Amino acid sequence: MSAHIANGRFVVWITLFIGMMFQIMPLPHIVAAWRPDWLLMVMIYWAVALPHRYSILTAWLLGVMLDVLLGATLGVRGLAFALTIYIVVLHFQRLRNFPRWQQTILVSVFVCIYHLVIYWTEFAIVGGTPFNTDMFLPAFSSLIIWWWIFWFLRNIRRRYKVR
């Protein structure tokens, strides 16, 4: 156990667990449509910071777990997480070097991609799912929150020397 704490794996999994809890936390109906994609943003941070350790397989597993917790069609969020994190990992070196405001815009684009993949797979599997522009509302709230998530996770990474 001390080996996991020493290189920070335990700390990363705790942050992913907290992101999962924020993702499934019940919200009042009036603000539920604006819920930021907490787990996706935490996963994006770790995929950019440590792409060799937390990438597509981790994203797929977390997405399937989220499907189970939400009672959704199994594998839809797993696919959406995996495709989104695949794009992030492809460009992680560029994303690291972008200014924070550009990273924020790209995180919002990644959230949009995530929701479009969910819509596309639900439409292909279930069929007849109506297109609703409200699915892009989390992109706006994620745009606002990314600065704080990045700052918080970077401080955790530095404090616990996550490598």
Automatic annotation (TrEMBL):
It is found in: Cell inner membrane; Cell membrane. It is a multi-pass membrane protein. It comes from the Bacteria. It holds the Pfam family MreD. GO terms for biological process: regulation of cell shape. Keywords: Cell inner membrane, Cell membrane, Cell shape, Membrane, Transmembrane, Transmembrane helix. PANTHER family: ROD SHAPE-DETERMINING PROTEIN MRED. The chain crosses the membrane at residues 12-31, 38-62, 68-92, 104-123, 135-153. Its main location: membrane. This is Rod shape-determining protein MreD. Involved in formation of the rod shape of the cell. May also contribute to regulation of formation of penicillin-binding proteins. Belongs to the MreD family. It comes from Shewanella holmiensis. GO terms for cellular component: plasma membrane.
